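Protocol step 4 of 6: structure prediction from sequence.
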Amino acid sequence: MKVKTILVSQPEPKVENSPYFDLQEKQRVKIDFRPFIHVEGVSAKEIRLQKVDLSNYTAIILTSRNAVDHFFRVADEMRFKVPDTMKYFCQSEAVAFYLQKYVVYRKRKIYVGKRNFSDLTPLIKKYKDECFLLPTTDKVKPEVPETLNNLSIEWKQATFYKTVISDLSDLANVYYDVLVFFSPSGIESLFHNFPDFQQKDTRIAVFGNTTIKAVKNKGLRVDIAAPTPETPSMTMALEKYIQTVNKK
């Protein structure tokens, strides 16, 4: 069956040169965007109940842009002036670049990993005498605390924001040829909103092994998977699939 419509379970890209827009134009398909999950901040009061005093920490570990936003939001709510001496350990260049929204980059001590959390290990080891805070979501990959525990450092994890299932009830009678997922939470949201969902002819595109596992655990079929050596991005995987089925 040909692909004419795609629903991506993420917010619409804000940049004009997104590969999704190129894909839409090139392959003449309609692509809609709808977050299946969203993030809500945890109040300063709730964070205090987690026994977090921001003044106790000399280094912050930031794994995402959400972590950046919510750390500084909470600091503002607590009227805590983040000292210029604070060290920032960012999981990726994208997170470090986003940090510039809140701090003067060249005047701060910022250490950047390559992409995976484990890439931060040698950087954190160099500063093992610091007291680290990990502001994070309520759903954390188990390898994150495991990695930090193995470093024999002083650190604390605190929930600064939560992943919440979005209301998708308006999509009940809307059909898409392809549904695109990037996390197990997206699959959880699908079945929370539509407990009787049946895949039938709907193609499911999935990014990452944990998401693939979540799809299969629900008895669904994975039709398009990324990343692979041949298609490292989701848009590349979608394009390859569309080219194959639409030319028939």
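Step 5 (inspection) to follow. The CA atoms of residues 169 and 193 lie 7 Å apart.
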